[in-house]
């Protein structure tokens, strides 16, 4: 199957569908199984498209915003999105581009994770009305299969030879790391998801991250064997201007759910965007008209800080709602002018991590104030980091429970504009 690679922000010529043109212009398309055929299908009339998310954590993170923004745009332009929560596949765990197997979760934990993820999804896509987005659990069909029945119906549709050509599998084998049969079968399960959605809801498009390419292709090919023309589309890997993976920190991810990262902590993450990334993130994560995106992208110096505030407020409004975005903006303005101090935690960490101590550099990265330990080290050694309002210039410093103030909180600031209040629970 041909892999169509797309240069972000460079619309292909002779596009017929508004939806694909918008997605390309916003930089949300990386690969497509058949770009011309997908363009024609989108132009012929409304389609149903899906993206799936396993419930391996209690919240989605900013990396998940890319496929969710793609579904959001498709819905705005007249198409119907389906969000699949992996109550079935989460029992296995996607091995794509991992060096080890994911921990197996109990069904009770998966159900709890799905409940919190649902609350974030409901903000990002409109689920109201008969034509609203659908939220489904793939356990509905995967849990119904009996082992021998599954092998008979689908095992013959996949070859080990083909599956070993996908980068997600090759990377594990090249690293000489074990790949269990359980993990190897994951891509079969995701392919069955696509076929089931096609049968149940006439779904013809799967959207996913670039690491899902092999899994998506398997679904498209399984649909072809069933006489269906299905399509796959991946979004780019989310990276910053310096090439690092965006949204991943030393202690985890930049979460979308407010119980894991406060709306102000989320707002501040975007407010601290590197200058070189502002235009890119305005395209990807806001719904501002492209003319306004281009205007803001051209700002320089102090004016660019205003563009960062607009970016932060727009993304926070999409993820947490307009009122939370307004409050975050007001709090940010007050903090950066020196007129206020934080009263509620912007980040939370487990109290247990303090038993062996948390590195200061790790804390700076986890708070979103540096992209790497090296950058954090330079900030610390330059005297720009404060713990509980005191300068700390020892990059080897470790944080223990004795450093905590009232209510098990720790104040961290970098320079005059970056402030966090970290709660330990």
UniProtKB/TrEMBL annotation:
<dbReference type="InterPro" id="IPR002307">
    <property type="entry name" value="Tyr-tRNA-ligase"/>
</dbReference>
<dbReference type="GO" id="GO:0005829">
    <property type="term" value="C:cytosol"/>
</dbReference>
<feature type="short sequence motif" description="'HIGH' region">
    <location>
        <begin position="55"/>
        <end position="64"/>
    </location>
</feature>
<keyword id="KW-0030">Aminoacyl-tRNA synthetase</keyword>
<dbReference type="InterPro" id="IPR024088">
    <property type="entry name" value="Tyr-tRNA-ligase_bac-type"/>
</dbReference>
<dbReference type="GO" id="GO:0003723">
    <property type="term" value="F:RNA binding"/>
</dbReference>
<dbReference type="GO" id="GO:0004601">
    <property type="term" value="F:peroxidase activity"/>
</dbReference>
<dbReference type="GO" id="GO:0005524">
    <property type="term" value="F:ATP binding"/>
</dbReference>
<dbReference type="GO" id="GO:0006437">
    <property type="term" value="P:tyrosyl-tRNA aminoacylation"/>
</dbReference>
<feature type="binding site">
    <location>
        <position position="190"/>
    </location>
    <ligand>
        <name>L-tyrosine</name>
    </ligand>
</feature>
<keyword id="KW-0436">Ligase</keyword>
<dbReference type="Pfam" id="PF01479">
    <property type="entry name" value="S4"/>
</dbReference>
<keyword id="KW-0694">RNA-binding</keyword>
<comment type="function">
    <text>Catalyzes the attachment of tyrosine to tRNA(Tyr) in a two-step reaction: tyrosine is first activated by ATP to form Tyr-AMP and then transferred to the acceptor end of tRNA(Tyr).</text>
</comment>
<dbReference type="GO" id="GO:0006979">
    <property type="term" value="P:response to oxidative stress"/>
</dbReference>
<dbReference type="InterPro" id="IPR002305">
    <property type="entry name" value="aa-tRNA-synth_Ic"/>
</dbReference>
<dbReference type="InterPro" id="IPR002942">
    <property type="entry name" value="S4_RNA-bd"/>
</dbReference>
<dbReference type="InterPro" id="IPR014729">
    <property type="entry name" value="Rossmann-like_a/b/a_fold"/>
</dbReference>
<keyword id="KW-0067">ATP-binding</keyword>
<comment type="subunit">
    <text>Homodimer.</text>
</comment>
<dbReference type="InterPro" id="IPR002016">
    <property type="entry name" value="Haem_peroxidase"/>
</dbReference>
<keyword id="KW-0547">Nucleotide-binding</keyword>
<dbReference type="InterPro" id="IPR036986">
    <property type="entry name" value="S4_RNA-bd_sf"/>
</dbReference>
<feature type="binding site">
    <location>
        <position position="50"/>
    </location>
    <ligand>
        <name>L-tyrosine</name>
    </ligand>
</feature>
<dbReference type="GO" id="GO:0020037">
    <property type="term" value="F:heme binding"/>
</dbReference>
<feature type="domain" description="Plant heme peroxidase family profile">
    <location>
        <begin position="127"/>
        <end position="228"/>
    </location>
</feature>
<feature type="binding site">
    <location>
        <position position="186"/>
    </location>
    <ligand>
        <name>L-tyrosine</name>
    </ligand>
</feature>
<dbReference type="Pfam" id="PF00579">
    <property type="entry name" value="tRNA-synt_1b"/>
</dbReference>
<comment type="similarity">
    <text>Belongs to the class-I aminoacyl-tRNA synthetase family. TyrS type 1 subfamily.</text>
</comment>
<keyword id="KW-0963">Cytoplasm</keyword>
<dbReference type="GO" id="GO:0004831">
    <property type="term" value="F:tyrosine-tRNA ligase activity"/>
</dbReference>
<protein>
    <recommendedName>
        <fullName>Tyrosine--tRNA ligase</fullName>
        <ecNumber>6.1.1.1</ecNumber>
    </recommendedName>
</protein>
<feature type="short sequence motif" description="'KMSKS' region">
    <location>
        <begin position="245"/>
        <end position="249"/>
    </location>
</feature>
<keyword id="KW-0648">Protein biosynthesis</keyword>
<feature type="binding site">
    <location>
        <position position="248"/>
    </location>
    <ligand>
        <name>ATP</name>
    </ligand>
</feature>
<dbReference type="InterPro" id="IPR024107">
    <property type="entry name" value="Tyr-tRNA-ligase_bac_1"/>
</dbReference>
